Amino acid sequence: MEPEHNPPTDDEIIARVLAGDGRAFERLVERYKALVAGIVVRKVPRQEAPEVAHQVFIKVFVSLPDYRPLKPFAHWLSTLAVRTCHDFWRERYRSKETTFSGLAPQSGKGREFRSEAERGGEAPDSYEAFETWELLDRALDRLSPADRMAVTLVHLEGCSMAEAAEALGWSQAMVKVRTFRARRKLRKIIDELLSGEVGDGSSQAKP
């Protein structure tokens, strides 16, 4: 296909989608699939990323009638992608019970297991002192979905409180409380994992 000299704007494509043009939606997906993939792969396990990205575009299609071009479409789409990742963790915490007996650091495994942050190409400086990235993954897995997303956005990805609040649909005060609480919990969990003193499950994360 020859490149277009004047490609349609996002708003023009969206208008076609809302008018019933299915091929126009395919065009929107093609235009933004890299953006969505880049957001999702940093927030969910890599093997789950394609399915979560697919869910993002399902939500885009369903929610498109509610889109208002007050901000660029890419901004609206990015927010929807972040919230879909949040929903992923909420569903995972509902459907599985964390096995605390398996959370103690395993000797001899070195760096066989890489954290979500490292798999996404973003190893956060604030956690470089940890012996392995596995420790961070295990600690994050014991936070609630909301606390996990808050600390990931603010402390691992460097979002401002305002950016995290907008992405999650929360107030900045809520983000501040969540991140403070999550950091405090992470310190406690990591101390337990480093010492091998895993709890009996009473501190299990709740959805």
Structure description:
The chain has 207 residues and is an all-alpha fold. It folds into two domains: 1-96, RNA polymerase sigma factor, region 2, helix turn helix motif (Rna Polymerase Sigma Factor, Chain: A); 99-207, Winged helix-like DNA-binding domain superfamily/Winged helix DNA-binding domain (Arc Repressor Mutant, subunit A). It has helices at 10-18, 22-40, 49-63, 73-95, 116-119, 133-140, 145-156, 161-168, 172-195. Helix 3 (49-63) packs across helix 4 and helix 8 packs across helix 9 (172-195). The longest helix has 24 residues, at 172-195.
Describe, in short, the structure shown:
The chain has 9 helices and no strands. With 207 residues, the protein is mainly alpha-helical.
Per-chain topology:
Layout: H1 10-18, H2 22-40, H3 49-63, H4 73-95, H5 116-119, H6 133-140, H7 145-156, H8 161-168, H9 172-195
